[in-house]
Amino acid sequence: MNSTTEQHLAAAFRDLVAEQPFTPDVPAIEHRARQARRRDRIARGGIGAGVVAVAAVAAVGVASAVPSAPAGTARASGAHSANTGSSTSSTSSTGSAGAQPPLVKLAADLAAAPRPAGDATLVERETAAPGQASINVWDLYTDNGRYFFARTEAGLPAQVKENNNQGDGQFGREVAAATYAASGDLDTAALKMAWPYPTRVPAWLSAQVKNMSAGGLQIDNYVWENSEDALVAGSGNPQVRAGVLRLVSALPGIAVTHGTVDGQPTLTLTAGAGELGYTGTDKANPKAAAGPAYQEAITINADTGIPLEIASGPAGQVTGTVTYVVTRVNLSGIAAGKF
Amino acid sequence: MSRPEEEYREFVGSRAASLHRTAYLLCGDWHLANDLVQETFVQAFRHWRRVQRADNQNAYVKRILINEFNRHWRRYGGLPVHADIDRLAGAVPDVSDEVVNRADLLRALLTLPARQRATVVLRYLEGMSERETAAVMRCSEGTVKSQAARALNALQGSLKHKESSI
């Protein structure tokens, strides 16, 4: 920087930006980044129990769904992909001021269900997108909060034996929030789920908990996205599923669609603009519409609440699906290669 | 809190103010600058290992900021909706106002093409060398020279100092 003009410009620039305080909201940054990272992982079929995929409001194709059973037998669904299988949808309803009756009833039933044997939940996860080959990976969530991942089922024993825990405690905290939500105070549960981090809940988030029924608030987004994680990570535990369903039933923007797949009853819970905002914008404000609403749909077995599929995309457009096969297992058995 | 988280938070604390100033001169709006910086840190968190491995972390994160700004520019184009020009015009004159009208300068800066604007902000606010600026902008040093020269020509009218010459 040699000329006088350049020196004056530098001084003028410094003057323009002087005395403007700025404190970044680090917890909010980390929250957004963690969500984005989970989406990244799902997009490439890699680590993490993600939640991103496809689907519109209509019930998606799901193969079979066998109720949860004692250790090692709680297989939830067969492999399937969007728009396949003989699925039908029937009645649907959208939350408003009140909770969703089907979810509330199912949550109550599950809360009273016995905890199955085993000490971990094995999830086979298949990610599919139109025009791309599907990817199968295996996630193993232990009841004490550890998380193991392998690209093949045969690769899991080594991960367990080496204690290659790839979680940072996040799944464990989300599952704990869901467990609390099964019978605890709903506002407290919502905050636990919305902010499952070691740091203190931000005041702005606490202030929103009493207005969840208003819809379109950030807490709705936080509760929804983290509940998806908890539902998958804790899918082998009926109390976790109960807590997630109770929380989701309190979100006003959720549409519930009854359906059947191959003769088995399903519920599809679809979140839209109120929880996820609109496509084409990064703004935290979900009302800042720039494109069609974003949607995510969770299809669960209507009797067990076990997740079968999570799908997402712009309204009316299917861009990919993630399907799950849930099995309750013993960690020692996995380490020994017994599935 | 894990060690990487601690390091990340230290990083945010040490870079936030500088990034915020740069973002403001890129977009001309403090609120939008907040968003750009927040998004920059989100991206840095997502790719934290890469940031840590970078030879020049400062340049790396500035590159992220420039990308975020460019993305915003492509999406919305031109001036931000709520540029702070009017507020500046009403500011109490200070020593700097003896040599430059701040509102005129900001207005002129915001009318520059995005690349020229980023170049002069990095060069003259950040004090980056032509080589450093070229690395962040992913262009040659010659391009930095030409972009800066054009920008200075355009801004000259706003720099009402007595020795105005480029």
**Main sheet overview of chain A:** 9 strands, antiparallel
Structural class assignment of chain A: alpha+beta
Distance between the termini of chain A: 68 Å
Number of helices of chain B: 9
Pair of chains with the largest interface and how many residues each contributes: A-B, 34 and 47 residues
Uncertain stretches of 5 or more adjacent residues of chain B: 89-99, 161-166
Report the helical percentage of chain A: 25-40%
- Element string of chain A (H = helix, E = strand): HHEHEEEHHHHHHEEHEEEH
CA-atom Rg of chain A in angstroms? 21 Å
Approximate strand percentage of chain A: 15-25%
Helix content of chain B: over 70%
Word description of this protein:
The complex is a heterodimer of chains A (339) and B (166). Chain A is of the alpha+beta class and 339 residues long. Mean pLDDT of chain A is 77; it is low at 42-86 and 281-288. In chain A, α5 crosses α9 (238-249) and α6 (186-194) packs across α8 (218-233). In chain A, β7 (294-301) and β8 form a beta hairpin. Helix content of chain A is 33%, strand content 20%. Chain A contains eleven helices and nine strands. In chain B, α1 runs antiparallel to α2 (30-46), α2 crosses α4 and α8 (130-137) packs across α9. The termini of chain B are far apart. In chain B, 71% of the residues lie in helices and 0% in strands. Chain B has nine helices and no strands. Chains A and B meet through α1 and α2 of A and α1, α2, α6 and α7 of B.
List the helices and strands and how they pair.
The complex is a heterodimer of chains A (339) and B (166).
Chain A: H1 4-16, H2 26-43, E1 87-94, H3 101-111, E2 120-128, E3 135-142, E4 147-150, H4 156-161, H5 170-181, H6 186-194, H7 203-208, H8 218-233, H9 238-249, E5 255-261, E6 264-271, H10 273-276, E7 294-301, E8 307-314, E9 321-329, H11 331-335
Antiparallel strand pairs in A: 1-5, 2-3, 2-9, 3-4, 5-6, 6-7, 7-8, 8-9
Chain B: H1 3-27, H2 30-46, H3 48-53, H4 57-76, H5 85-89, H6 102-111, H7 114-125, H8 130-137, H9 141-155
